[in-house]
User: Fold Nucleoside-diphosphate-sugar epimerase from Nonomuraea roseoviolacea subsp. carminata.
Amino acid sequence: MSLHVIVGAGATGSAAARLLAESGEQVRLVTRRGGGPVHPRIERVPADAGDADRLAELVAGAEVLFNCAMPPYDRWPAEWPPLAAALLAAAERGGADYVMLGNTYGYGPVEGPVTDGAPLAPTSRKGEVRARMWLDARAAHEAGRVRVTEVRASDFLGAGAYSPFTLMVGAQVLAGAPASYPGDLDAPHSWTYTGDAARTLVAAARDERSWGRAWHVPSTSDLPVRSLAARLAAAAGVSEPRLRHMPAHELEEIARTDSIMAEFPEMLYLYDRPNVLDASSTREALGVTPTPIGDVLAEMAAAARPMEEAGSRP
Assistant:
């Protein structure tokens, strides 16, 4: 039994912790409040991962450090750099391999399917943050200080997942309410199931071919938003979605009073045109295949039912 440290207990970090624990590994799950799934082989530790010294203590003796952390979306430029530096330093000092959960922001706009070998050319502040995190980690790898790899996901789906779709469309569809979405409703778009992201993280950590490069999570679907919303409604047995395109002026108006929505305009290039990931190398080398979209949507629908039932009780 070896020790694996995971920082962050969101949907993907929690799924990765369960996968490792169920396979017989010891997991130390680090969050600010000590939350996360309950399992005999999961040790939940409250700690500030930005404290490099404390994190190094927690990583000492670990085989792998997984970075599944996520600062508040509207504070990435200020909070990600010191947190990323602390995580990288902890992996180096503890002698652990370092596996990062990333996204596609660092590529910038790309025509056609995005491969995991595409150059980083960010056009947004958040993309610059993600690109710098990977470049710093890869430099440490190339210098022989630590072995690193990054698993890059697209927009998340699944129970407890957070993405523009789940926040602006999925929740409304499940509640039978109208929804507005600022992207192209009919453009193909890759969707990442949180469970598939967790399986890719674990597979990358266990494969000697992983280090020094990035991997894409195989997408559960490339359905456009309009089709995805219709499939979710059918899975939940609710009425057909009432979905409309949110015009730019409306998004700008909302952004004036909503700090999270204020971060969305610079990322519109991901949503106002086709955005499809090529994960063929992950499938072939790591053996990860995506969960069927029907299973993912059924999970999302089932997760919403207890909340609906609780809300209907007197």
Q: What stands out?
A: The chain has two domains: 3-154+194-216, 157-189+221-277+291-312. The first helix runs from residue 11 to 22. The radius of gyration is 19 Å.
